[in-house]
Amino acid sequence: MTSVALAVTDGMLHFELALACEVFGSGPPGGADSWYRLSLCGPGAVRAGRFRLEPDHGLDRLVDADTVIVPGWVDVDQPPPTELVDAVRAAHEAGARVASLCTGAFVLAAAGLLDGRRATTHWAHTGVLAERHPRVAVDPDVLYVDNGSVLTSAGKAAAMDLCLHLVRLDHGSAVANALARRLVVPPHRDGGQAQFVTTPVPAPGNHPLAELFPWVMGRLDQPLTVEDLARRARMSSRNLGRHFKSVTGTSPLRWLLVQRIRHAQELLETTDDTVDTIAAATGMGTATTLRRHFHRTVGVPPDAYRRTFRARKRPGADHPRPVRSTP
């Protein structure tokens, strides 16, 4: 069982804190052979918004965790507590995988964990992070950044993207997808947070593509074209492209390819189907086409991916690179 520790102090954002507790602290979804052992580590009773928390352990216990999560920091104009920064740094030095949610990146930056690395945070604060920590390569346009042992997410809902990404690394796509279904959230979103700077995240059923998405997901084995999607959505191909960019942050063909790859990952994990069979089931046509797109998108060939997730490697071990969060 993998241990996950949430670093909590006064001034944490309760949304990201609760989100991490829900992902790592609830029971495992269907298909999971094991799950996480979650603990809250803090200096004592702390307040997160209107909520009072009683941590399980002190901050010194972060060094015992396999993964440390640092939730959002409410006031980026104030330096994070020294004891929190020191504890997070010590945990990373002890071998923990450290991930920040939203403005929790300021804690990781203060600990020096982001120096020389690419990172992100909420779009409203990327400029401040870059100015305050010039050695950090701040990327304002992505939902999350995975540097292996150090990960950062953009704001609010992107914290869920990163948490599901961690589950996907540890347990595979099938389990991450099952968890996403239980939480009623997308298992993976394409595009970056730039799409949310001036446009709110569309509510289910509240955008022109709401009926198109499930229709496509039920036909991934078919050779769909942009014209097919446009015809189904009752709009021109140009309008379809514009709506796709607004809703998903990417193009129709890129979105469709990622859905095919995601489906292929799940079939590789959960079935003994040959690559040829999976290529047909995902609309790739041939094993050669599937292997080319899969390797370019995921980072490893399908056979290697299957071996890795059938073995259920422990977190922190070598693993395939997930589908990128940006097109």
- Shape descriptor reads globular
Query: Number of helix segments?
Result: 13
Beta-sheet strand percentage? Answer: 5-15%
What is the strand arrangement across the widest sheet? Answer: 2-1-5-6-10-9
Structural class given helices, strands, pairing?
A: alpha/beta
**Head-to-tail CA distance between termini:** 34 Å
Number of strands: 10
Major sheet details = 6 strands, mixed
Helix percent band: 40-55%
Mean pLDDT comes to 86
| Unreliable runs | 194-203, 313-327
What string, H for helix and E for strand, traces the elements in order? EHEEEEHEHEHEEEHHHHHHHHH
How does this structure look, described?
This protein is α/β, with parallel strands linked by helices. 42% of the residues lie in helices and 11% in strands. The protein is built from 13 helices and ten strands. It has helices spanning 14-25, 82-93, 105-110, 126-132, 157-171, 173-183, 212-217, 226-233, 237-248, 252-270, 275-281, 287-298, 302-311, and strands at residues 2-7, 36-41, 46-48, 51-53, 67-70, 97-100, 118-119, 137-138, 144-146, 150-153. The strands form three sheets. It has a six-stranded mixed beta sheet, sandwiched between helices. Strands 3-4 form a two-stranded antiparallel ribbon. A two-stranded parallel ribbon has the order 7-8. Helix 1 (14-25) links the parallel strand 1 (2-7) and strand 2. Helix 5 runs antiparallel to helix 6 and helix 10 crosses helix 13. The longest helix has 19 residues, at 252-270. It is globular and about 55 Å long.
